[in-house]
C-alpha cells in the first residue's frame, strides 16, 4: 500500500472577534423557557471557567461556509507541492451547509465541495467532489477516508476541508451558544514513498441514547420557539461523561494499533470542544496507560481565543502549529502525533500520524 502524507495545510480564521463580555446583554433562557436566576455576568464567569473560552471568531455578514472553505483550500494549495488540477477528490466536512442567520434555510445543493472546486477554478473533470456530514469529527473522518483512497491506489492527492459557520445556527437565547464559533481548515493528503505519514486509526459511532446528545431543537425563548427555526442543542453533561470514557479509549486503540505507547506520542491534537473536557480526556488516557505526563505540554489548545469551530478546530490548529503560532508548542520531523475528535452522532475517531 502507498504511504500517505499531509502535503499542504491552510486555514481561514475569521476576523470578527466576539468576546465574552459581548454577551453581557444577551437574553438567555433555560430549557424550560424560564429566565436564569443568575446574572449574565455570573453565567459568563462560570462559562469561561469550564470551557476556557474567552473569545471566538465569527464570519462577516454574507460570508458562507463554502466561501471560507475555499479560502482555506487556496492557502493549503499554496503550501503544497500539488496544484488544484492534481486533486483526485475534494471532500468538505461540515454539518449545516450554507445558511442564513435564522437557521431555517440550509443550502447543501450543489455540494459545498463542488462550490469550492468552482471557486478554485479547477477544470479537471476527474476532480470529484463530495460533502461529509459526521459531526465535529468530520474533518478527521475525511482524513481517514482520504488515506484509505490513497492506500487503495484509487487516488494520489485528496483535499480534505473542515468548515463551519456555527454563528448562523446557534440559539442566541441559549447560553451554550457562547461555545460555538466559525472557521475553516484544509489539508492535502498525497501518496508518498518516504518515511512518515499515516500510521493507524480507530473510529466508532454510538447511536442509541447517545444519538440526541447533540441535535437540532427550538429556541429556549418562548416566543422564538413558536417559529419554525431550529438551532444546535446539546446535553452538555451527557456529552462530557460520554467523551471522558470513549475518546480516551479510541485514542488508546489507535496508538495500540500503531504498535506504540503513549511515551512515543509527541502531541495530541484534540477537537477544541471544551478545555475542561479535553484536559479530563487526557488525564483519563494517562490513567489507561498508567503513566503521568504534562497534559498542557502534550496538548496544544486554541479554544481560548478561537472557540469551538466544529470540524475546523483540528486542521486550523495543525496549520497554526506548522506556522509556529501556538506558543510553547511545535511539530518536528519524526514526531508522532494523535488527531482525535468527538461529536454529534455520537461519533469518535482518532488517527496516529508521523510528521
From TrEMBL:
Gene Ontology molecular function, alphabetical: 3-oxoacyl-[acyl-carrier-protein] synthase activity
Keyword Cytoplasm (UniProt): no
Beta-ketoacyl-[acyl-carrier-protein] synthase III N-terminal domain span: 130-199
Segments forming domain Beta-ketoacyl-[acyl-carrier-protein] synthase III C-terminal: 256-354
Keywords, ordered alphabetically: Acyltransferase, Transferase
Superkingdom of this protein's organism: Bacteria
Record bears the keyword Lipid biosynthesis: no
InterPro entries referenced in this protein's UniProt entry, alphabetically: ACP_syn_III_C, ACP_syn_III_N, Thiolase-like
GO biological process assignments: fatty acid biosynthetic process; secondary metabolite biosynthetic process
Gene3D superfamilies for this protein: 3.40.47.10
PANTHER family hit by this protein: 3-OXOACYL-[ACYL-CARRIER-PROTEIN] SYNTHASE 3 (PTHR34069), BETA-KETOACYL-[ACYL-CARRIER-PROTEIN] SYNTHASE III (PTHR34069:SF2)
Protein name per Swiss-Prot or TrEMBL: 3-oxoacyl-[acyl-carrier-protein] synthase-3
Organism: Roseivirga pacifica
Amino acid at each position: 500500500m502507498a504511504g500517505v502524507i499531509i502535503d499542504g495545510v491552510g486555514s481561514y480564521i475569521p476576523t470578527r472577534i466576539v468576546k465574552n463580555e459581548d454577551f453581557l446583554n444577551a437574553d438567555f433562557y433555560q430549557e424550560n423557557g424560564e429566565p436564569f436566576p443568575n446574572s449574565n455576568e455570573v453565567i459568563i464567569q462560570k462559562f469561561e471557567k469550564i470551557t476556557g473560552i474567552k473569545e471566538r471568531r465569527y464570519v462577516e455578514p454574507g460570508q458562507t461556509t463554502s466561501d471560507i472553505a475555499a479560502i482555506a483550500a487556496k492557502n493549503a494549495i499554496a503550501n503544497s507541492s500539488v496544484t488544484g488540477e492534481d486533486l483526485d477528490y475534494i471532500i468538505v466536512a461540515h454539518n449545516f451547509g450554507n445558511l442564513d442567520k435564522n437557521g431555517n434555510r440550509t443550502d447543501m445543493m450543489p455540494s459545498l465541495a463542488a462550490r469550492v472546486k468552482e471557486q478554485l477554478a479547477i477544470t479537471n473533470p476527474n476532480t470529484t467532489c463530495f460533502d461529509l456530514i459526521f459531526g465535529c469529527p468530520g474533518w478527521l473522518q475525511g482524513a481517514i477516508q482520504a488515506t484509505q483512497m490513497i492506500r487503495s491506489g484509487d487516488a494520489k492527492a485528496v483535499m480534505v476541508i473542515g468548515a463551519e459557520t456555527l454563528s448562523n445556527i446557534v440559539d442566541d437565547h441559549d447560553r451554550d451558544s457562547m461555545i460555538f464559533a466559525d472557521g475553516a481548515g484544509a489539508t492535502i493528503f498525497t501518496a508518498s514513498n518516504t518515511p512518515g505519514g499515516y500510521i493507524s486509526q480507530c473510529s466508532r459511532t454510538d447511536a442509541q441514547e447517545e444519538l440526541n446528545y447533540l441535535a437540532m431543537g427550538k429556541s429556549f425563548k418562548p416566543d422564538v420557539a413558536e417559529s419554525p427555526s431550529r438551532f444546535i442543542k446539546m446535553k452538555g453533561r451527557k456529552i462530557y461523561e460520554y467523551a471522558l470514557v470513549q475518546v480516551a479509549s479510541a485514542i488508546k486503540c489507535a496508538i495500540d494499533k500503531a504498535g506504540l505507547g503513549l511515551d512515543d506520542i509527541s502531541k495530541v491534537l484534540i477537537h477544541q470542544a471544551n478545555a475542561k473536557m479535553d484536559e479530563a480526556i487526557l488525564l483519563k488516557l494517562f490513567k489507561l496507560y498508567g503513566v503521568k505526563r504534562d497534559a498542557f505540554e502534550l496538548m496544544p489548545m486554541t479554544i481560548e481565543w478561537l472557540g469551538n469551530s466544529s470540524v475546523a478546530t483540528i486542521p486550523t490548529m495543525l496549520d497554526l502549529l506548522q506556522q509556529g503560532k501556538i506558543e510553547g508548542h511545535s511539530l518536528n520531523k519524526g514526531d508522532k502525533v494523535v488527531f482525535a475528535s468527538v461529536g454529534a452522532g455520537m461519533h469518535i475517531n482518532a488517527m496516529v500520524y508521523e510528521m
